[in-house]
Amino acid sequence: MEIVNHSVNFLTMLPTGCYAGLLFQQDEEASSQPLEAHRDAQVTQALSVLLDFLTYQLDQDDKDPGRSGQLLTPILTLIATASRANRTIRKYFRIKILPHLGADVKRLPESGSTLRNRLCSRLTAKGKLDDGTVEAVAFLIFVLCREKIDRAVKYSGFGNFVGFLSRHGLMAGGGRRGVGSSPQGDYSSTSSDSETEAYKELKDQVNPVTGRVEPPRCNPMEGMSDEQKEYEVMQLVNKIDQLQRSGVIQPGVVGDDGRVRPAEHVLELVQNVPDDDHGDASDDSN
User: Fold this and answer.
1) Which one of 9, 66, 94, 258 is least enclosed by Cβ atoms within 10 Å?
2) Are 141 and 156 within 8 A, CB to CB?
3) 167 and 207 co-located in one domain
4) How many CB atoms lie within 10 A of CB 170?
5) Quick check: pTM over 0.70?
6) pLDDT in tens, 115-136
7) In this structure, how many other beta carbons lie within 10 angstroms of the beta carbon of residue 190?
8) Coil, strand or helix: which one is 16?
Protein backbone atom coordinates (compact mmCIF):
# COMPACT_ATOMS: atom_id res chain seq x y z
CA MET A 1 0.00 0.00 0.00
CA GLU A 2 2.99 2.31 0.38
CA ILE A 3 3.34 2.70 -3.40
CA VAL A 4 -0.37 3.51 -3.68
CA ASN A 5 -0.03 6.02 -0.85
CA HIS A 6 2.78 7.87 -2.64
CA SER A 7 0.82 7.73 -5.89
CA VAL A 8 -2.21 9.29 -4.21
CA ASN A 9 -0.11 12.12 -2.80
CA PHE A 10 1.33 12.74 -6.26
CA LEU A 11 -2.06 12.66 -7.99
CA THR A 12 -3.50 15.28 -5.63
CA MET A 13 -1.03 17.81 -7.09
CA LEU A 14 -1.93 17.25 -10.75
CA PRO A 15 -4.04 19.71 -12.79
CA THR A 16 -7.66 18.57 -12.95
CA GLY A 17 -7.42 18.01 -16.70
CA CYS A 18 -5.03 15.12 -16.09
CA TYR A 19 -7.49 12.97 -14.16
CA ALA A 20 -9.00 11.54 -17.34
CA GLY A 21 -5.73 9.60 -17.57
CA LEU A 22 -6.96 7.43 -14.69
CA LEU A 23 -9.36 5.78 -17.14
CA PHE A 24 -8.13 2.95 -19.38
CA GLN A 25 -9.25 2.61 -22.98
CA GLN A 26 -12.42 0.60 -23.48
CA ASP A 27 -12.12 -2.57 -25.55
CA GLU A 28 -15.16 -2.17 -27.77
CA GLU A 29 -14.35 -5.32 -29.74
CA ALA A 30 -14.55 -7.55 -26.68
CA SER A 31 -18.34 -7.40 -26.64
CA SER A 32 -21.09 -6.73 -29.13
CA GLN A 33 -22.74 -4.56 -26.47
CA PRO A 34 -20.06 -2.46 -24.75
CA LEU A 35 -20.75 -1.45 -21.16
CA GLU A 36 -21.02 2.15 -20.07
CA ALA A 37 -17.51 3.36 -19.31
CA HIS A 38 -18.07 3.72 -15.55
CA ARG A 39 -19.33 0.12 -15.36
CA ASP A 40 -16.48 -1.38 -17.40
CA ALA A 41 -13.96 -3.08 -15.10
CA GLN A 42 -11.17 -2.62 -17.65
CA VAL A 43 -11.76 1.13 -17.92
CA THR A 44 -11.94 1.62 -14.15
CA GLN A 45 -8.95 -0.50 -13.07
CA ALA A 46 -7.11 2.46 -11.54
CA LEU A 47 -10.28 3.73 -9.85
CA SER A 48 -10.75 0.32 -8.26
CA VAL A 49 -7.27 0.58 -6.74
CA LEU A 50 -8.12 4.01 -5.30
CA LEU A 51 -11.36 2.66 -3.87
CA ASP A 52 -9.50 -0.23 -2.22
CA PHE A 53 -7.03 2.27 -0.77
CA LEU A 54 -9.88 4.34 0.68
CA THR A 55 -11.25 1.22 2.34
CA TYR A 56 -7.77 0.39 3.66
CA GLN A 57 -7.36 3.85 5.18
CA LEU A 58 -10.76 3.64 6.83
CA ASP A 59 -9.82 0.23 8.25
CA GLN A 60 -6.59 1.63 9.66
CA ASP A 61 -8.51 4.50 11.24
CA ASP A 62 -10.90 2.09 12.91
CA LYS A 63 -8.04 -0.04 14.26
CA ASP A 64 -6.14 2.93 15.69
CA PRO A 65 -8.43 5.70 17.03
CA GLY A 66 -5.37 7.83 17.80
CA ARG A 67 -4.17 7.76 14.20
CA SER A 68 -3.81 11.12 12.49
CA GLY A 69 -6.82 11.98 10.37
CA GLN A 70 -4.49 13.64 7.88
CA LEU A 71 -3.59 10.20 6.53
CA LEU A 72 -7.16 9.81 5.28
CA THR A 73 -7.56 13.28 3.79
CA PRO A 74 -5.42 12.84 0.61
CA ILE A 75 -7.44 9.94 -0.80
CA LEU A 76 -10.71 11.73 0.01
CA THR A 77 -9.47 14.88 -1.70
CA LEU A 78 -8.23 12.97 -4.74
CA ILE A 79 -11.50 11.10 -5.28
CA ALA A 80 -13.53 14.30 -4.86
CA THR A 81 -11.33 16.37 -7.18
CA ALA A 82 -11.14 13.68 -9.85
CA SER A 83 -14.90 13.08 -9.65
CA ARG A 84 -15.54 16.79 -10.06
CA ALA A 85 -13.29 16.93 -13.10
CA ASN A 86 -14.61 13.86 -14.94
CA ARG A 87 -18.19 12.59 -15.01
CA THR A 88 -17.18 8.97 -15.74
CA ILE A 89 -14.99 8.95 -12.63
CA ARG A 90 -17.78 10.50 -10.57
CA LYS A 91 -20.35 7.97 -11.76
CA TYR A 92 -18.04 5.10 -10.82
CA PHE A 93 -17.39 6.36 -7.30
CA ARG A 94 -21.02 7.36 -6.80
CA ILE A 95 -22.17 3.81 -7.50
CA LYS A 96 -19.51 2.34 -5.21
CA ILE A 97 -19.76 4.85 -2.33
CA LEU A 98 -23.36 6.10 -2.55
CA PRO A 99 -25.39 3.32 -4.19
CA HIS A 100 -29.11 3.83 -4.58
CA LEU A 101 -30.90 3.71 -1.24
CA GLY A 102 -33.24 0.89 -0.34
CA ALA A 103 -34.22 -0.78 2.90
CA ASP A 104 -30.98 0.56 4.43
CA VAL A 105 -32.82 3.85 5.17
CA LYS A 106 -34.30 2.03 8.15
CA ARG A 107 -31.04 2.74 9.99
CA LEU A 108 -29.02 5.91 10.47
CA PRO A 109 -26.67 6.89 7.61
CA GLU A 110 -23.71 6.58 9.99
CA SER A 111 -24.72 3.13 11.28
CA GLY A 112 -23.40 0.16 9.35
CA SER A 113 -20.33 -1.12 7.53
CA THR A 114 -20.79 0.24 3.99
CA LEU A 115 -18.55 2.99 2.65
CA ARG A 116 -21.47 5.40 2.89
CA ASN A 117 -22.02 4.50 6.54
CA ARG A 118 -18.35 4.79 7.41
CA LEU A 119 -17.95 8.17 5.75
CA CYS A 120 -21.14 9.58 7.28
CA SER A 121 -19.95 8.52 10.73
CA ARG A 122 -17.01 10.89 10.27
CA LEU A 123 -19.13 13.93 9.40
CA THR A 124 -19.75 14.80 13.03
CA ALA A 125 -16.66 13.23 14.61
CA LYS A 126 -14.60 15.23 17.08
CA GLY A 127 -10.97 15.39 18.11
CA LYS A 128 -8.45 14.19 15.58
CA LEU A 129 -10.81 14.78 12.66
CA ASP A 130 -10.76 18.53 13.24
CA ASP A 131 -7.70 18.60 10.96
CA GLY A 132 -9.80 18.78 7.81
CA THR A 133 -11.03 15.23 7.39
CA VAL A 134 -14.62 16.17 8.22
CA GLU A 135 -14.56 18.82 5.48
CA ALA A 136 -12.96 16.38 3.01
CA VAL A 137 -15.62 13.73 3.69
CA ALA A 138 -18.47 16.22 3.32
CA PHE A 139 -17.04 17.66 0.11
CA LEU A 140 -16.66 14.17 -1.38
CA ILE A 141 -20.31 13.38 -0.65
CA PHE A 142 -21.34 16.77 -2.06
CA VAL A 143 -19.44 16.17 -5.31
CA LEU A 144 -20.74 12.61 -5.71
CA CYS A 145 -24.23 14.08 -5.38
CA ARG A 146 -23.44 16.53 -8.22
CA GLU A 147 -23.28 19.35 -5.66
CA LYS A 148 -27.02 19.17 -5.11
CA ILE A 149 -27.96 19.99 -1.55
CA ASP A 150 -31.14 17.92 -1.41
CA ARG A 151 -29.36 14.85 -2.75
CA ALA A 152 -26.45 15.17 -0.31
CA VAL A 153 -28.91 15.51 2.58
CA LYS A 154 -30.80 12.47 1.32
CA TYR A 155 -27.71 10.27 1.53
CA SER A 156 -26.16 11.68 4.72
CA GLY A 157 -28.99 13.20 6.76
CA PHE A 158 -29.41 16.93 7.36
CA GLY A 159 -28.09 16.68 10.92
CA ASN A 160 -24.82 15.20 9.69
CA PHE A 161 -24.44 17.53 6.71
CA VAL A 162 -25.58 20.83 8.21
CA GLY A 163 -22.05 21.80 9.27
CA PHE A 164 -20.82 21.71 5.68
CA LEU A 165 -23.82 23.69 4.45
CA SER A 166 -23.29 26.32 7.12
CA ARG A 167 -19.56 26.68 6.46
CA HIS A 168 -20.17 27.28 2.76
CA GLY A 169 -23.18 29.58 3.03
CA LEU A 170 -25.60 27.03 1.60
CA MET A 171 -28.15 27.02 4.41
CA ALA A 172 -30.52 29.26 2.48
CA GLY A 173 -30.58 26.73 -0.35
CA GLY A 174 -29.32 29.19 -2.92
CA GLY A 175 -26.67 28.10 -5.37
CA ARG A 176 -26.06 24.49 -6.19
CA ARG A 177 -22.37 24.95 -6.75
CA GLY A 178 -19.54 27.31 -6.04
CA VAL A 179 -17.92 25.47 -3.16
CA GLY A 180 -14.20 26.09 -3.17
CA SER A 181 -12.21 27.88 -5.85
CA SER A 182 -12.27 25.10 -8.46
CA PRO A 183 -14.32 25.48 -11.64
CA GLN A 184 -17.74 23.90 -11.83
CA GLY A 185 -17.76 20.14 -12.02
CA ASP A 186 -18.16 18.03 -15.15
CA TYR A 187 -21.71 16.94 -14.38
CA SER A 188 -24.30 15.59 -16.77
CA SER A 189 -27.33 17.86 -17.05
CA THR A 190 -29.54 14.88 -17.87
CA SER A 191 -28.47 12.63 -15.01
CA SER A 192 -31.29 11.65 -12.69
CA ASP A 193 -31.32 10.14 -9.22
CA SER A 194 -33.39 7.04 -9.86
CA GLU A 195 -34.85 5.37 -6.78
CA THR A 196 -35.30 1.70 -5.93
CA GLU A 197 -38.76 0.30 -5.30
CA ALA A 198 -37.78 -0.39 -1.68
CA TYR A 199 -36.84 3.26 -1.17
CA LYS A 200 -40.01 4.56 -2.84
CA GLU A 201 -42.09 2.57 -0.35
CA LEU A 202 -40.25 4.11 2.61
CA LYS A 203 -39.53 7.59 1.22
CA ASP A 204 -42.43 9.36 2.94
CA GLN A 205 -41.41 7.91 6.31
CA VAL A 206 -37.80 9.15 6.18
CA ASN A 207 -36.89 11.91 8.62
CA PRO A 208 -34.65 14.28 6.61
CA VAL A 209 -32.82 15.38 9.76
CA THR A 210 -31.70 11.89 10.79
CA GLY A 211 -31.78 10.39 7.30
CA ARG A 212 -33.66 7.27 8.35
CA VAL A 213 -37.20 5.95 8.72
CA GLU A 214 -38.65 7.09 12.04
CA PRO A 215 -41.52 5.33 13.83
CA PRO A 216 -44.79 7.29 13.78
CA ARG A 217 -45.27 9.57 16.77
CA CYS A 218 -48.44 10.97 18.22
CA ASN A 219 -49.09 14.71 18.00
CA PRO A 220 -48.57 16.14 21.54
CA MET A 221 -51.04 18.93 20.75
CA GLU A 222 -53.77 16.63 19.51
CA GLY A 223 -57.06 17.41 21.24
CA MET A 224 -55.91 20.82 22.50
CA SER A 225 -57.92 23.93 21.86
CA ASP A 226 -56.37 26.85 19.99
CA GLU A 227 -56.03 28.71 23.29
CA GLN A 228 -54.15 25.80 24.86
CA LYS A 229 -51.84 25.53 21.86
CA GLU A 230 -51.08 29.25 21.98
CA TYR A 231 -50.35 29.00 25.71
CA GLU A 232 -47.92 26.10 25.22
CA VAL A 233 -46.16 27.90 22.37
CA MET A 234 -45.64 31.01 24.49
CA GLN A 235 -44.34 28.87 27.35
CA LEU A 236 -41.79 27.36 24.98
CA VAL A 237 -40.78 30.78 23.64
CA ASN A 238 -40.28 32.11 27.17
CA LYS A 239 -38.15 29.12 28.18
CA ILE A 240 -35.96 29.44 25.09
CA ASP A 241 -35.58 33.14 25.85
CA GLN A 242 -34.51 32.37 29.43
CA LEU A 243 -31.95 29.81 28.27
CA GLN A 244 -30.59 32.25 25.70
CA ARG A 245 -30.30 35.11 28.18
CA SER A 246 -28.53 32.89 30.71
CA GLY A 247 -26.01 31.77 28.08
CA VAL A 248 -26.94 28.08 28.28
CA ILE A 249 -27.83 27.98 24.58
CA GLN A 250 -27.26 30.28 21.63
CA PRO A 251 -30.01 29.83 19.03
CA GLY A 252 -29.04 30.58 15.47
CA VAL A 253 -30.76 31.81 12.34
CA VAL A 254 -29.71 31.75 8.70
CA GLY A 255 -28.27 35.10 7.65
CA ASP A 256 -28.41 36.78 4.27
CA ASP A 257 -25.11 35.12 3.33
CA GLY A 258 -26.56 31.64 3.84
CA ARG A 259 -24.53 31.05 7.01
CA VAL A 260 -25.83 30.54 10.53
CA ARG A 261 -25.47 33.53 12.86
CA PRO A 262 -26.52 33.96 16.52
CA ALA A 263 -30.12 35.07 16.95
CA GLU A 264 -30.28 38.52 18.52
CA HIS A 265 -33.81 38.01 19.83
CA VAL A 266 -36.03 34.97 20.34
CA LEU A 267 -38.61 36.42 17.94
CA GLU A 268 -36.11 36.00 15.10
CA LEU A 269 -36.66 32.27 15.42
CA VAL A 270 -40.28 32.58 14.30
CA GLN A 271 -40.25 35.60 12.02
CA ASN A 272 -40.15 33.50 8.83
CA VAL A 273 -42.74 30.96 9.93
CA PRO A 274 -45.75 31.20 7.57
CA ASP A 275 -49.03 32.43 9.02
CA ASP A 276 -51.52 29.61 8.44
CA ASP A 277 -54.51 31.89 8.86
CA HIS A 278 -53.08 34.35 6.35
CA GLY A 279 -52.28 31.51 3.95
CA ASP A 280 -55.82 30.15 4.20
CA ALA A 281 -57.24 33.59 3.50
CA SER A 282 -55.05 33.90 0.41
CA ASP A 283 -56.16 30.52 -0.84
CA ASP A 284 -59.81 31.45 -0.41
CA SER A 285 -59.34 34.62 -2.42
CA ASN A 286 -57.94 32.76 -5.45
Assistant:
1) 66
2) yes
3) yes
4) 24
5) yes
6) 999 999 999 876 554 668 899 9
7) 5
8) helix
